[in-house]
């Protein structure tokens, strides 16, 4: 069966990262590749279909839009729709999250539990461009630029993490307004809802969290979503997924994912529909590589300089990414 092939091929088999999820969630820090930052566990966005036995764990800027469009078109699955009991989801949820269900339920209900990851530097640089598109004031717009280069975004993000980590570790000390609620700042935003409680929770996050850990959610590293993202019984999603693809190998891996899903479509909706969808989705034109970025280094403001890449590699917030996800350190850090 394809499921067996997927499990054997892509379940974290290329590196010894057995200590990464626990260290990441609890804040192992320290030297070496396994230590990670101290961040509160949270629910991560997922897309699922129990009928087709598929669960996708969302990692922003790692082909997530491509994957979500495919899932919506083929099996009508999205963040905002679920075909299983969602009564255990957080109150007023708007998007389905990993903490809706227990680890045991997920393993039983979804044969394919997959995600994609991406070179950490490339992912961050793509997140910078997304943040600029969403917040023009970051690069100028009608106001003075707040973060005119990727280096400036990185330095601000690292400084914010250090500030909030220290505030959370010493909550009795005098804090600035930006770190006066570490209980909120180190967590993902609550779901927006119409209830009084939901509105109050979102107001809290808007007042504090938006000046909290992340300048923009697209800057979040993959491990924050995969190891910090947990089930209802606090199992990291790194222990749930059974297929992990790299966007750098997207063209080769895409037929595996779509083929599995289209087999299910054929079984449930007929071979004709599966054949039509096959023509639309089996091929993929995709670029997620740093190959073209190197030439632009020093001229494109959205590309990190060599010094900034080294700061990223050495930072508590990002340094676990390469080892835990099986990527080679960039040349700037070797």
Short précis:
The chain is mainly α and 334 residues long. It has helices at residues 2-10, 20-26, 64-75, 103-109, 120-134, 150-169, 182-185, 196-208, 222-226, 250-269, 271-281, 291-296, 306-314, 320-325, and strands at residues 46-49, 54-57, 112-117, 243-246.
Description:
By secondary structure, the chain is mainly alpha-helical. 43% of the residues lie in helices and 5% in strands. The chain contains 14 helices and four strands. It has helices at 2-10, 20-26, 64-75, 103-109, 120-134, 150-169, 182-185, 196-208, 222-226, 250-269, 271-281, 291-296, 306-314, 320-325, and strands spanning 46-49, 54-57, 112-117, 243-246. It has a four-stranded mixed beta sheet. A hairpin with a 4-residue loop joins strand 1 and strand 2 (54-57). It is globular. Residues 1-15, 22-38, 172-211 and 287-292 have low confidence and may be disordered.
Span between N and C termini? 41 Å
What is the beta-strand fraction? 5-15%
**Given the helix and strand composition, which structural class is it?**
mainly alpha
Q: Biggest sheet, open or closed, and with what strands and sense?
A: 4 strands, mixed
Unreliable residue stretches: 1-15, 22-38, 172-211, 287-292
Biggest sheet, spatial arrangement of strands? 1-2-3-4
């Amino acid at each position: 069966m394809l499921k067996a092939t997927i499990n054997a091929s892509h379940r974290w088999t290329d590196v010894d990262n057995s200590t990464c999820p626990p260290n990441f969630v609890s804040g192992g820090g320290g030297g070496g590749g396994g230590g990670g930052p101290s961040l509160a566990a949270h629910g991560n966005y997922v897309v699922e279909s129990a009928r087709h036995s598929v669960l996708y764990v969302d990692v922003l800027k790692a082909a997530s839009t491509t994957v979500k469009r495919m899932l919506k078109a083929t099996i009508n699955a999205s963040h905002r729709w679920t075909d299983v009991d969602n009564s255990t989801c957080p109150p007023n949820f708007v998007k389905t999250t990993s903490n809706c269900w227990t680890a045991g339920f997920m393993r039983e209900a979804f044969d394919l539990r997959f995600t994609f990851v991406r070179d950490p530097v490339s992912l961050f640089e793509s997140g910078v461009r997304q943040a600029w598109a969403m917040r023009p004031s970051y690069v100028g717009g009608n106001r003075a630029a707040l973060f005119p280069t990727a280096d400036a975004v990185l330095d601000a993000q690292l400084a914010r993490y250090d500030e909030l980590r220290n505030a959370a570790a010493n909550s009795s000390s005098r804090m600035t307004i930006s770190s006066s609620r570490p209980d909120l700042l180190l967590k993902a935003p609550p779901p927006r809802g119409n209830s009084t409680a939901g509105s109050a929770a979102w107001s809290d996050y808007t007042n504090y969290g938006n000046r909290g850990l992340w300048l923009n959610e697209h800057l979040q590293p993959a491990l924050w979503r995969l190891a910090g993202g947990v089930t209802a019984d606090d199992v990291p999603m790194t222990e749930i997924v059974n297929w992990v693809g790299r966007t750098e190998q997207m063209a080769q891996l895409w037929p595996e994912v779509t083929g599995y899903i289209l087999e299910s479509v054929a079984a449930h909706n007929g071979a004709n529909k599966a054949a039509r969808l096959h023509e639309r989705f089996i091929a993929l034109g995709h670029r997620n590589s740093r190959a073209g970025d190197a030439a632009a280094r020093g001229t494109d403001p959205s590309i990190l300089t060599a010094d900034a890449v080294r700061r990223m590699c050495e930072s508590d917030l990002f340094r676990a990414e390469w080892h835990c996800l099986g990527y080679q350190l960039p040349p700037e850090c070797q």
